[in-house]
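Try it yourself: sequence plus BES, in.
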Amino acid sequence: MVQVKVEKAKIDQKQTPLLVIGVFEGEQDFPHSKELDSAVYSSIREMLENKEFRGTFGSSIVVYTLGKGPMKKIMLLGLGKREKFTNESARICAGKATRKARELEIKEFSMLQFSNLDEGLVEAMTEGIALALYSFDKYKEAKVPATKIEEVTILINSDSLRFQSVAEKANLIVEAVNFARDIGNLPPNDCPPAHLASIAVSLAQDYGMNVRVMDRYELENMGMGGIVAVGKGSNNPPKLIVLEYTGASDLQQKPYLLVGKAVTFDTGGISIKPSEKMDEMKFDKCGGCTVLAVIRAVASMKLAVNVVGIVPSVENMPSATSYRPGDIIRMYNGKSVEVLNTDAEGRMILADALAYGIVTHSPKAVIDLATLTGAAVIALGANVAAVVGSNKQLIDRLRKLSDKTGEKMWELPLYDEYHEQIKSTYADIKNIGGRPGGAITAAAFLSNFVNDVPWVHIDIAGTAWMQEGTHEKSYNHKGASGFGVRTLVKLLMEDEKQLPT
Ligand code: BES
Ligand code: ZN
Ligand code: ZN
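Structure, out:
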């Protein structure tokens, strides 16, 4: 992957094929302008004064320096209105410039800091650059583009090591996001549950972590009725992956528990889905991919926290051995569930994983991620994830972080009334609650499998991949998005800071 570096700006000396300079809308000057060759500066200045370049958000223009100065070309990049500029704008603008730079077929370039220097800016610019350069070309003979950008330097007005380390961490986080995208994008024929498990095992080896993969027989013996039931219909047997990262010096410190839905392909089972867009159900494993990626990031940064990741993985297929509507399943925590729709399989596997994770690891908090309901997309669209949970404080922390990371999240309520909708005639609960409030009744179902531990559920059905209704940004890309990785890693980094080491 490209490495983004930071360096103290000396632009009269910086040898580079391209220097990107951000300009705010309606402004005629920019930082370090006086260090440019005077002829180059005058030409740019004239362009700005004549409003040939206005600095509107995301616009750009390339100027040749004709040998006057150490940079071959300059790209002016519109940052939009200064008052509206946020870290997310920096991420998007850095991504736009990077995509343009890639068209110029160069191997490296430099970018001047966009606005006042702080850690958030350096982080956002690094992320925008590195995320924008992602591509999934594993299955293509002709790799596009032919020339890959290998190095990008952000030029800042400080030589403080603090910013170097911010950029280094941001590189590691993006590597993890791209790891999540790479697995998420795998076609279902190349990514059965056993393959996901093998990825977790190599991760554990690479970073010296504990990993345990439970197979179908163990799951049966342990009473994980939900995972076994959903997995029954496929020739690719189910797996339960448990990956543990222990970074806190106090080994007794309670871990965060992250649980991610990994349905490697969701046909709906006997309650089969319509064929239109069914291919997109290869992304039904994205919650699990995010969990693996968060642990990868945390391990690569050696954060002083403890995290347990649990990924229940199945393929939901229709066959002679599938579970059926009408079946009553005994779950890991002893509750019985009446199956009324085999397409509501995500909650069946998450339920066992949550209950098992909580009794086994006594976590201080639990967060689950899942492409759980089409209803979440109906409620909030394809750019915002739905958050439901039992702990206001944890929800608010995630919400605040999500404003910064640009991974938008919005809370839906979990009033008692929603529990009425999943009461069953024949069992303790049923696995569907009807169309009204479908994203919330799914969460109400999950709440039956968590005790009083702080718990937050994030429904990423709309945001896990680029789909109809996804707002195109420079740094997202067709396919899996790795949604949630950056926000959860930030949460754990925040936690690390609060703890005495
Ligand atoms: N994986 C789907 C949810 C989904 C649908 C995610 C579309 C992204 C886009 C999930 O397993 C599912 O099929 N849910 C059903 C639940 C229903 C049967 C209660 C749904 O949302 O229709
Ligand atoms: Zn389904
Ligand atoms: Zn599903």
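One thing you can check immediately is this: The first strand starts at residue 3 and ends at 8.
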